[in-house]
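User: Show me a protein chain along with its predicted structure.
Assistant: Here is one chain, sequence first, then structure tokens.
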Amino acid sequence: MMRIAAADIGNSSIKYLVGDVSRIHQRGESEWPKSQNLSLEDLSQSNPLVGQPTEWFVSSVNEDNASELQARLQVAGDLTRWRILHRQDVPLALDVDQPERVGMDRVLAAFAAHRIFGRQQDVIVVDCGTALTIDLVGHDGVFRGGVIMTGPATNLTALNLMTEALPDLSTEKLVRPKSVLGRSTREAMLSGAWYNGLGAIREVVKEMQDLSSGVAQVVGTGGGLGPWRDVLPEDWILVDDLVLRGIFLAAADLQGGPDHEPF
């Protein structure tokens, strides 16, 4: 059994999943384990017990949080291997001007989308969080680039910071407006953030489809994509933990060695 834990360590939380490579390889999508979210408060107060010794593969933007998680796992006896993933560990070709500057989250999400959904066709990856990124990956496994924009909360923060009169609505839950005609400043700003994001996603995806060889499969991910889930096309695939799956799949390849058949 190839038991792997994949962790995406951020500045405010840690997301992880633990699974058996062979089960996913044999049974596909239905066997993907559910991802877990660990707040920094949870990490400081208790051990994130997995239940048995496990090999951990990690993508991290916060060295202190990564070190704390590693220490907790060692104390609990749930750690047999700890490896921080880097771009060279992810088997995805980057056809861009500065491949070394492409964010690890973009690389991992693109890799997972291609490996799981894009073997026979191009894939467009829409990832919405603090930033909204949309990238195109060819069916040949080549990352061709994309766009980086502000996510809806970031847009609302910018309006507050760069004006004197507009409030900070960045923590407000974004939902589909009842009308495009906002009847207050608050309604107008939230409506603007909703339509701004939706319009950008639709237009960029349309442009990328025109550049694709055939019809590209669109895969959406990221917590910030929630406000538009009900209005996105039915043939789009929405995956909450695409970056984690990218870590997991890259780890499976690294574990398997030269004779391993990737899935």
